[in-house]
């Protein structure tokens, strides 16, 4: 150990560990992994590298994709997309309607932690069934590893899974509680709107369950969410309020419980997480928690990001739809050039969000323009920030001609009484923008539809400068009226399409390196 320290010129263990974490040493696993990914990126962007459609399937039920696995038939069928051609991992017998899966999350093993069971070190799937069972399934076999019954006497409709802290703390949310029409006509009041059950994962452990009550948070609550330790409460008038979720758990916890523990709670005797008792509602919010922040935004659209912290809202009036204000979280000051408006004339609105690469940049996507923006200090005003353009990506509309006046073969002059929309299907239009973190590439899907035949291509851009590195034409026709998802995962491209009448299709493309000309 001392020899290694002297050899690299570092004489402090803490500094050595820090440098190792940052990948300063050639033998470090992180360095090798980064070099391999850099090599894959260069190979993928070569002109001779193609992406070939190797597999296509159709289904009457939704198709989902998670980290190299394709799930079909309500998660009863799992197919790996990592092999040269997708192959079946497992196929379970068709489940009854009462066992239908409502939502799912992929759970991956944390690094450097001792876990109680060997199965915990392999990827698993957390699923929520229509009958309020929370199951942990093996990602390799579909075997049930753990099961927890959620709904006791308090709630019967748990429907949504989400991460508070990714791969660490999970939230199970109920559907909004609504009284039957007859009960409302009889004057019965429903004060509890939502239930939230909180779990630590790997090992799966119960933290607590709480209710979102009108008496505490107000009558006009429409939805709630939890993210990164913040409870987000949304209201019908566009108001968004933020509370410290961790502080709420600590302040209002009446009694902690462990899964499998026998309990006597409010006159009920049972086992935590077992049928028919489920989970106790052991977090009772008796007073309005301290408010961290509030903002009013059209359709409750509210995002936080950047450095220093900023937030993005749309002023809460319909006439401002498509106008975005970028403000400092510290003092609500609007950043210089902080009003972003593409002035689009389109059926689908433009959208904006903080870049997922943690650079603090902002991505603003319009029908024919993608702007990557950055926050920087105003010159000679260190306490003020401004929004500056980092780079732009422009749709290819060179062949688009939109003449308002045309002349027929007979010489008659015809004047158009309308102009094309910015997202007219006959013009190339951006539909999807995503980020591949391991290859550090920005991916875009642009579509042009002529008649009934739509054509799409997936482009890879340098995330730092926006330079186009690769363009992949998708073979299948793309109908802009359908719902589409496109996943780009290292050497894989996967396109999931939802057609009318719940018809789903999945197209898988694999990277192939071949210098020979191939029509495929």
From TrEMBL:
Pfam families per the UniProt record, alphabetical: DCAF17
Domain of life: Eukaryota
Transmembrane segments: 192-212, 224-243
Matching InterPro entries: DCAF17 (IPR031620)
Gene Ontology cellular component annotations, sorted alphabetically: Cul4-RING E3 ubiquitin ligase complex
Gene Ontology process terms (BP): protein ubiquitination
Keywords: Membrane, Transmembrane, Transmembrane helix
This protein's name: DCA17 factor
Organism lineage string: Eukaryota, Metazoa, Chordata, Craniata, Vertebrata
Gene encoding the protein: Dcaf17
